[in-house]
Amino acid sequence: MIILTLLLLFSTLLCQFTEESDPIKFLEMMKPGCLDLWKRFRLLPSVAAAQAAHETGWGRSNLAKKANNFFGVKGYYEGRTIRVTTHEYYDHTNPVYITDGFRVYPNATESIRDYGYFLTSRPWYEGATNRRYYRDSIQAIWDGGYATDPIYVDKVCKIIETWNLANWDQEAFDMDANS
Fold first, then answer.
1. pLDDT at residue 177, as a whole number
2. Rg (CA), the chain
């Protein structure tokens, strides 16, 4: 009986682990767009990929699934928004749950491009561009008010370090040198 219960539990967990929740497949999907962010906006690919992974739980969030919003960008995109419950740390200590409007994109590519435009069109994120070190970039994004979680920078950096995403930055730098 215990073995049957364990098998049932294991098979249920396997069914819940879909392609989109596989970090490797998620990163493969995000990589071309994140590399393009360096060319278009001078935003580090590692930072974009890690933010997307963090913001969506590797693509599992309803925001990613229903709205193709991989960065938690609030507001409207081409007149479309979706209301989602989220948490904010207004006092940098205690989470407060709110329902807010988030942009709805037609696809992941538009989400990535709009993230680049969003950051580079607002002066308070100016320090995030043209960086060579990911921690400086994500710190500038946090300092600009992108996220309220007091350990957001550390969480994003941990993803970059765990998945060796700084290699993507080097790849982007190398593409610059070869063009």
1. 87
2. 17
Identify which of 129, 141, 138 has the alpha carbon closest to the alpha carbon of residue 39: 129
Residue 168 maps to a domain: yes
Q: How far apart are CA 168 and CA 164, in angstroms?
A: 8
In this prediction, residue 16 has a pLDDT band, given cuts at 50, 70 and 90, of very low
Q: Per the confidence metrics, is the pTM higher than 0.85? A: yes
For 23-34, what is each residue's pLDDT tens digit? Answer: 999 999 999 999
d(CA 170, CA 178): 12
Domain that holds residue 42: 22-60+106-178
Report the number of distinct structural domains present in the chain. Answer: 1
Q: Are 172 and 43 in contact (CB under 8 A)?
A: no
Quote the CA–CA distance of 125 and 140 in Å, as a whole number.
Answer: 6
